[in-house]
Specification:
mainly alpha, two-stranded antiparallel ribbon, 3 domains, 8 helices, disordered C terminus, single chain
């Protein structure tokens, strides 16, 4: 923030040239020296999160789906530069051709990757873009509970195995026995 009343001290109050030098330093090295190179990109965040999940023996299948749906312009964007509209637009595009639950699962992986990037890079000062832009689609987790009548179940089983069967009413939970 500009302060025209205090003298620059090089730490809490910077003159124009000191501020410019510090901005360059942050953009290239990270302000605490913990980040190598330029700003963390979305693709870099996904790669880092995948490595973290792999270390913890987690499910890596989610990353294939996420990478398939991430467009190149979004992959190359610095995490700190993400806007709500970038991520909401991506999520809404997914919702146009995927089930809401799939959109939520895919978005959750990206959100976790971005959170990990923010934890490791002090240059990422806010998480608002993905907290808002990747908000879950409501009612996506509601399962379709369809109860089939016995005749339909028998028909499905008969068609799947090509055999006749009888229903043993005494079996546990009405299990069909071929």
């Amino acid at each position: 923030m500009a302060d025209d009343f205090e003298e620059a001290n090089g730490t809490t109050v910077l003159d124009y040239w000191q501020a410019q030098a510090q901005a360059r330093s942050i953009a290239h090295d990270g302000d605490d020296g913990s980040h190598d190179g330029g700003p963390a990109t979305v693709a870099g965040a996904v790669d880092a999160y995948e490595a973290d999940v792999k270390t913890r023996a987690g499910d890596l299948g989610n990353f294939t789906r996420l990478r398939f749906h991430l467009p190149a312009p979004l992959c190359g964007k610095p995490v700190a530069a993400l806007k709500v509209r970038d991520l909401r637009g991506w999520r809404d595009d997914l919702a146009a051709h995927l089930a809401p639950a799939t959109v939520n699962r895919t978005s959750a992986v990206l959100k976790a990757a971005l959170n990990l990037a923010a934890e490791g890079d002090a240059r990422i000062s806010t998480r608002r873009a993905w907290e808002t832009g990747l908000a879950s689609i409501a009612d996506a987790q509601e399962s379709r509970n369809v109860i089939l009548v016995d005749e339909v179940v028998r028909s499905i089983i008969a068609q799947s195995c090509g055999c006749a069967f009888r229903c043993d009413r005494g079996a546990t939970h009405g299990a069909a026995i071929p």
